[in-house]
From TrEMBL:
One of its GO terms (molecular function) is DNA binding. The lineage of its organism: Bacteria, Bacillati, Actinomycetota, Actinomycetes, Pseudonocardiales. This is Response regulator transcription factor. The keyword Zinc does not apply. InterPro entries: CheY-like_superfamily (IPR011006), NreC/VraR/RcsB-like_REC (IPR058245), Sig_transdc_resp-reg_C-effctor (IPR016032), Sig_transdc_resp-reg_receiver (IPR001789), Tscrpt_reg_LuxR_C (IPR000792), WalR-like (IPR039420). Keywords: DNA-binding, Phosphoprotein, Transcription, Transcription regulation. Residues 4-121 form the Response regulatory domain. Residues 146-211 form the HTH luxR-type domain. SMART domains: HTH_LUXR, REC. The modification 4-aspartylphosphate is found at D55.
């Protein structure tokens, strides 16, 4: 599978560095660049990238607004990875809430960036459990409560969601629960459908937001 990537960053030097990293991989291709979030919808509609590497802080239209716009207006939007300088950046959590599938630090090693792109392109989450817990703890949304009751998750689905929130992949969840990989994929699909979320990252954010999973500072 060839994964196409759109680079969005207001610094040309950053874009050049990311392009060099991405285009060096045989299965990844940069199909376009943008210097501001305002350019993103048009480029996504025209180029249909699989993944957007989106700078979270830009002077005109930031990564949060651009991500929210993509998720609400583009049919079958691409996966979005927000790129940030600091992992505790308030913008990161807001971007995840807006629909981003994960985040990467600008100081990430080339192999981490490449792995991150491949991860979200295949439908997995690019989650860093410790960082997500810190971000969720810093952004309380009211008293803790099991707000997922109305979703009517089964006991097994609740187990799977907790392991998803811990950052486990489908394979790791299968090993942990002694289940087949396809069975886990079915559970994950059911969880996303019941929660009305588009991917694993959004399901995990929903778990924290509802109080189903309680972040520890």
């Amino acid at each position: 599978m060839n994964v196409t990537v759109l680079l969005v960053d207001d610094e040309q030097l950053i874009r050049a560095g990311l392009r060099a990293i991405v285009d060096a991989e045989p299965d990844l291709t940069v199909v376009g660049e943008a210097a501001d979030g305002a350019e993103v919808p048009g480029l996504v509609t025209r180029l249909r990238p699989d993944v957007v590497l989106m700078d979270v802080r830009m002077p005109a239209v930031d990564g949060i607004r651009a991500t929210r716009h993509l998720m609400s207006t583009v049919d079958a939007p691409p996966k979005v990875i927000v790129v940030t300088t600091f992992e505790n950046d308030d913008y990161v959590y807001d971007a995840l809430l807006a629909g981003a599938s994960g985040f990467l630090l600008k100081r990430a090693r080339p192999e981490e960036i490449v792995a991150g792109i491949r991860t979200v392109a295949t439908g997995e989450s690019l989650l860093f459990p410790a960082a997500i817990r810190r971000l969720a703890a810093a952004h309380p949304r009211g008293p803790a409560r099991d707000g997922l009751t109305s979703a009517a998750l089964t006991d097994r689905e609740r187990e799977v969601l907790r392991l998803m929130a811990a950052g486990l992949s489908n394979t790791e969840i299968a090993t942990n629960l002694y289940l087949g990989l396809q069975t886990v994929k079915t559970h994950v699909g059911n969880i996303l459908a019941k929660l009305g979320t588009r991917d694993r990252t959004q399901a995990v954010i929903r778990a924290y937001e509802s109080g189903f999973v309680t972040p520890k500072p």
